[in-house]
Amino acid sequence: MQIEIKIDSSCTEPKIIIQTASITEEVNTLMQRLSENTPPILTGSKDGKIEVLSQDDLFRIYASGGKVFAVTDKGEYLLRLRLYEAAERLNSSRFVRISNSEIINLNKVKNFDLSFSGTIYVELSNGTTTYVSRRYVSRIKKILGM
Questions:
Q1: How far is CA 119 from CA 8, 25, 54, in A?
Q2: Residue 39: its pLDDT value, please?
Q3: Is residue 6 part of a domain?
Q4: Domain residues for 133?
Q5: pTM (two decimals)
Q6: Which of 7, 70, 112, 124 is the most buried (most CB within 10 A)?
Q7: How many domains does the chain have?
Q8: b/e for 20-47, b at 16 or more Cβ within 10 A?
């Protein structure tokens, strides 16, 4: 993707023009992020306190029992968002959905084990293990350049 900025002193309001051959997922994501007013931060509650969660500290976000949790090295936090809402706030180049109920931080992955037939075993740097569901295996392989 190319980015070009033109400085024009007669311009009263910033204007964004997207030039593309076709509407792709990347273009849709870009348009959505530019038009949303939701701040790209995540907050989670733990021990009755609400904390701002840094994306750098997140290992995974998962849904369980109708609730959404975020895991950091400081522990597990309850989010007041649905999983898809949390996904919209995350950096899409670092976070990837691996199942209908889980998103992982690629920067926190220790290794992927593809020896299991039809699925991928994931070990995170904090020792947590999880699996990529069959539905998301092709997406993960594409990200890994396979």
A1: 52, 25, 30
A2: 57
A3: no
A4: 25-143
A5: 0.71
A6: 70
A7: 1
A8: eeeeeeeeeebeeeeeeeeeeebebebe
CATH code: domain of residue 120 = 2.40.50.1020
Does residue 5 lie in a domain region? no
Look at residue 88 and tell me if it is in a domain: yes
Counting every residue written for the chain, the total comes to: 146
The tokens describing 128, both together, are 């947590």
Categorize the per-residue pLDDT at 38 as very low, low, confident or very high, splitting at 50, 70 and 90. low
Give the separation between CA 97 and CA 139, rounded to whole angstroms: 9
Confidence of residue 145 (pLDDT cuts 50, 70, 90): confident
pLDDT in tens, 48-102: 999 999 999 999 999 999 999 999 999 999 999 999 999 988 988 889 999 999 9
3-state DSSP percent of the chain in helix, strand and coil, to 5: 25, 35, 45
Exposure class string for 130-142: b at 16+ Cβ within 10 A, else e: bbbbeebbeebee
